[in-house]
Amino acid sequence: MLRECQSHGYFRGETCPDCGQEGRFLMNEHELNRVGRIMAGVLRHFPEKFGVEMDPQGWVDIDAFIGQLRTQKDRLHWIKPYHLVAIVATDPKGRYQIEGDKVRATYGHSMKLDLKDLPGDDVPDDLYYPVTEEEVELILERGLAPTDRQKVHLSRTYENALAAGLRRAENPIILKVDSYQARMDGHLIQQAGKTVYITDEVPAKYLSRAD
Fold first, then answer.
1. Cβ atoms of residues 95 and 107 within 8 Å
2. CA distance 39 to 44
3. Are 21 and 32 in contact (CB under 8 A)?
């Protein structure tokens, strides 16, 4: 459920976590999930298929995006720009960013983009990455490189990496990345979400088992 509290802004849930008021209804869970899936697809993978233009940094015009949503999805004819702003503001993973009248996804892209403007000055000394039992030895030998995405995605904590790994393996193995030394050696690592960091690659010398 997506709602807006007059005093504390947008929130997800039945009542405002700050004051307990119900606030103004914006979207039910089904609508929120549906729009979220469309946003992920368009902003990470196929803007041209949805009829919106994306600049080299991944930004698209909010009004243009909302216009295409209303045109192409009859059941979303009611959606307005503030609904998208509310989704971004309350996204638990910080997957999206708004600046002025534009929106973008901050990670997860299958398209090649220039994301050099993402912050890179507050990176933890250690980051984490989940792998399977079958691939762990190969990765420890060869390092990490992108597969279906343009960047390697690293997690802030062991727990974050474990949660990500459980989506693709029953018993993921968590690798620790010496991000401090990697950065000292000139590798750019940037924060792209609340718990996600991206980089072009992680050479094997910076990897070790975390458990």
1. yes
2. 8
3. no
Residues ≥6 apart with Cβ < 8 Å to 16:
3, 5, 7, 8, 22, 23
9 forms beta bridges with: 5
For the segment 31-56, the average pLDDT, to the nearest whole number, is 94
| Alpha carbons 156 and 193: distance in angstroms, whole number | 10
CATH number at 126-209: 3.20.170.30
Domain residue spans in the chain?
2-105, 126-209
- In angstroms, the CA 105 to CA 113 distance is 11
The per-residue pLDDT for range 133-170, each reduced to its tens digit, is: 999 999 999 999 998 788 999 999 999 999 999 988 88
Q: Report how far Cα 181 is from the mean position of its chain's Cα atoms.
A: 25
How far is it, in rounded angstroms, from Cα 29 to Cα 126? 35
Is residue 107 within 8 Å of 155, Cβ to Cβ?
A: no
Note whether 40 and 18 are within 8 A (CB).
no
The CATH code that applies to domain 2-105 is 1.10.10.970
Nearest-5° angle of CA 84, CA 114, CA 64?
A: 30
